[in-house]
Design brief:
There is one protein chain. The protein is of the alpha/beta class. The chain has a single domain, classed as CBS-domain. Helix content is 36%, strand content 18%. The longest helix is centred in the last third of the chain and has 15 residues. The chain starts with 38 loop residues before the first strand and ends with a helix. InterPro entries: CBS_dom, CBS_dom_sf.
């Protein structure tokens, strides 16, 4: 029955000291690195979603458990309708809805304070694939967005959310605060800041 299989030789781990993490690529990420290095690609990792009918504090707990600051909001039929961020829940949005609708916090649902997909901006996957981190960073800076969706299209013309690019992911990859980069006056200044941040992390 097991003739086509064979046991593998097991290894000794006494000399192994390092753990590989997803951020480790062996190369230093810079503003000129391909933009897809800072894109969360949903062909590689599943998007973290939440139903529009979930109470907002439950949604926040889901973010914490999944180590994300944004959830993709879906209907009962699993159709994408928007996003909700930790800032939306922890900020004034919930309070404004409570006051305007005369409801308690326990009655505030994700759909009440989420950002509808019509209000979101995106890049195409081709744009990301042919651009650099610096291009996307300046796009975020000029738009004022914290997240940009990445959309692709099937051979049948069906558009899909392929991934997301966030300011926080760029900041983490470059090891420099995004707000610090915002203060730079030129691209050369930004490169200098990124280079200094890289040296400090060594």
């Amino acid at each position: 029955m097991f003739e086509e299989f064979y046991p593998l030789r097991l290894q000794d781990n006494s000399e192994v000291e390092n753990l590989l993490t997803p951020d480790y690529t062996g190369e230093q990420v810079s503003l000129r690195s391909p933009a897809n290095e800072v894109m969360t690609d949903f062909t590689l990792t599943s998007p973290v979603t939440v139903s529009e009918d979930v109470q907002v504090d439950d949604a926040l707990e889901r973010m914490k458990s999944q180590h994300v600051r944004m959830l993709f909001v879906t209907t009962e039929a699993d159709k994408f309708i928007g996003v909700i961020t930790a800032r939306d829940i922890s900020g004034t949005k919930a309070m404004v809805h409570m006051n305007s609708c005369g409801v308690s916090r326990q009655e505030v649902l994700v759909r009440d304070i989420m950002l509808n997909k019509a209000s979101l901006r995106s890049l195409t996957f081709d744009q990301v694939r042919h651009s650099r981190i610096g291009d996307v960073m300046l796009t975020l800076k000029s738009s004022g967005d914290q997240h940009l969706l990445v959309v692709d299209e099937t051979d049948l013309g069906i558009k899909r959310i392929r991934g997301v690019v966030s300011a926080s992911d760029i900041s983490r990859k470059l090891k420099v605060g995004f707000d610090i980069m915002y203060e730079a006056k030129s691209f050369a200044d930004i490169e200098k800041i990124v280079a200094q941040g890289s040296e400090m992390s060594l």
